[in-house]
Amino acid sequence: MLKATRPCLLICAVCVSLAGCNEAALFQAPPRGGDPAPSPAASDSVITLVASLPYAALAQIAEAKIPKSVPLGGDGHVACMDVPYLNPGHVGSHQECFNKPYVDFRGVGTERVCVNVPDITGPSIGSRNQCADYHWNADVNKDGPVRIGKSGADIQVAQNIHITGKAGLGGNLAGALSLSGKSFDARVSSAMNLNVGLDNRWCPIVKVAPVGRWVDSASVEVVGRNCVGIDLGPLGHPQICAGPVNLGLADVLNSEFDKHRDDIQHAAQGALSCDMVREKVGEQWHPFSIKIDRSGQAPLFLNIEPKAAGFSGLLAGDGASKIVVRVGVKTVLSPSEMSNTGGTVPELDSVAANQGGLDINLQAVAPYDFLKNELAAAMKGKTFKKDTAAGVIEVRIDDVDLYPSNGSLAVGLKIDAKLPGRWFDTTGWVYLSGKPTPVQNGKAIAIENIGFATVLDSAFWTAVQGLFETEILSTLKGYAQFDLSKEIDKAASQITSAIAKADVAGLKITAGPPAIQLTGAYIATDTLIVTTKLSMSVDTELTAALIK
After folding, report:
1. Which domain holds residue 262?
2. Four-point Cα dihedral 397, 399, 402, 406, nearest 10
3. Residue 388: inside a domain, yes or no?
4. Which residues have a Cβ under 8 Å from the Cβ of 340 and sit 6 or more positions away?
5. Rounded CA gap, 523 and 494, in Å?
6. How far apart are CA 542 and CA 281, in angstroms?
7. I need a labelling partner for 154 at 20 to 30 A (CA). Which of 197, 307, 411, 446 fits?
8. pLDDT (tens place) for every residue of the chain, 548 residues total
9. Which residues pair with 49 in a beta bridge?
10. Distance CA 79, CA 43 (A)
11. Strand ranges for 383-455 from DSSP E
12. Is 204 within a domain?
């Protein structure tokens, strides 16, 4: 029995030995090694800087600037007309002379004789041109508080006005008709819009425009209507009238406002000086850093350095108007905090009033073991078959390897192949390599441009090449795509959370929801580093108002 067993054991040992010999290197394994991890790149971004002009503060300034009372006065013409009067007539005489003939002791001749002849003139109507004029005085008083609010993109300033006054008359027509001036009382409302801008030296530019007209409508009667009858006896009893006369206060007030438009504009502009604006902005014109805590890792700092600025416009709100400036900044993630030494406030440019956008180049880490395990879970245990003229080829994937290699990702497939004409299975590693590439519009990377490494066993490769280059390679490409959403979202969340909780003296920072875009991958020594651009709207507001 023992003699019979020995040949069997020898045969088994030879079989095992032959199988072990068949687990030879089928391909040349690509060399291992990656590059040092690069530092995150700096990016140019734009954030919005807002400085507020509270309406309550503007109202206080307006109350101090608008006088409580302003005197006004003027002259006007009532009428000129021909006033009739009666010429009663009279009885008189005049002398008439003629040559009278005579015959007497003087002889015959003529002599000059004059006699008085009576004159009778009947009654008649005459007229005299007479005029009446008036002069008025009034006090224009504030009627209630100044009202300030938004009007589209502008600031609207409105003030109710109470006008009291009296008119006096002069001229012989006023006496003839017994005309008298009247006291008047009127209430009107005036409103104007202020548009505030900044020039390139940060100096406020204020433009004042009336709402419609300064005062839409206001009219008072300063002279009433009066009529007088004139007795002309048998020639009649004509009547003459004058008045009424209305004073267009709206025209008067609008004319006064127009005269002082520049004064109003200068007063509004003087409430906010160049130095005041530059000082407030200059206090915050320096780099600032936001600390980003990372679990189990050293913290990073989001360093933001202002470089340029452009005026966007005035945004009117319910309680305040806001001067909007877009600030060009340099942003970078760094292991060290940037010095917050202040810089010189630059000149302003004009830009569109869009929201700011902060672009941050961040890095998400994908360990090679994670990628290998993901690929192994998909490929390990799969069997591929192909009928050939020599017989059926069957290849089973027993294991997967993945590692960095000279700027590429090397993929190893440990296979067990049953080949026609061979007693024993062929086992060993087939190696491929490719480039990690971001998948468009996603949070995944794919190994693309996959190619086979150097073949060492040409006989084996001749037998299986058709199966590997079709079905096996196609399956590998389908699974060589890795969803990195968790890793990317974690890195992005660390940054957005840090911005939301940032405590920067003198600034209130508000960030919108982030948009994430994969931009590239670096094959480092220990991990695959995926570079991602994180974009979000960021508004910063000076916590101290420009005016108080």
Report:
1. 69-83+124-269
2. -70
3. no
4. 286, 287, 288, 289
5. 23
6. 8
7. 307
8. 434 444 443 334 433 433 444 466 799 999 999 888 778 788 877 888 888 888 888 888 778 777 788 887 777 666 665 555 445 656 666 677 877 787 777 777 777 777 776 666 655 555 566 676 767 787 888 888 888 888 888 888 888 888 887 766 665 655 555 556 667 677 777 888 888 888 888 888 888 887 766 555 555 555 556 665 555 555 556 666 655 666 666 677 677 777 666 777 777 777 777 888 888 888 888 888 888 887 777 888 888 888 888 887 788 888 888 888 888 888 888 888 888 787 788 888 765 545 557 888 888 888 999 999 999 999 999 999 998 888 899 999 999 999 999 999 999 999 999 999 888 889 999 999 999 998 866 788 999 999 999 999 998 999 999 999 999 999 999 999 988 888 888 888 888 888 888 887 888 888 888 888 888 889 998 899 888 888 888 888 887 766 76
9. 325, 540
10. 79
11. 383-388, 391-405, 408-418, 426-438, 444-452
12. yes
Does residue 520 belong to any structural domain of this protein?
no
- Strand duo 538-542 + 43-54: pairing: parallel
List phi, psi (to 5°) of 4.
Answer: -75, -30
Do 56 and 204 meet the contact criterion of CB atoms below 8 Å apart? Answer: no
Distance (Å, whole) CA 76 – CA 132: 9
- State how far the alpha carbon of 320 is from the alpha carbons of 157, 232, 326, 425, in Å: 13, 74, 19, 82
| Angstrom distance (rounded) from CA 14 to CA 2 | 19
The greatest distance separating any two alpha carbons of the chain, rounded to the nearest whole angstrom, comes to: 228
Q: Which amino acid is at 180?
A: S
Distance CA 439, CA 447 (A): 10
In DSSP notation, 52-76 reads EEEHHHHHHHHHHHS-SEEEEEEEE
DSSP state of 113: E
Token pair in block for residue 222: 């300063």
Residue 178 domain flag: yes
| Residue 1 identity | M
Return d(Cα 313, Cα 119) in angstroms, integer: 93
> Which letter, b or e, does each residue of 268-282 get, where b requires 16 or more Cβ atoms within 10 Å of its Cβ?
bbebbeeeebeebbe
DSSP assignment letter at 203: -
Q: Which residue has the tokens 């009433």?
A: 224
Strand partners, 137: 73, 166
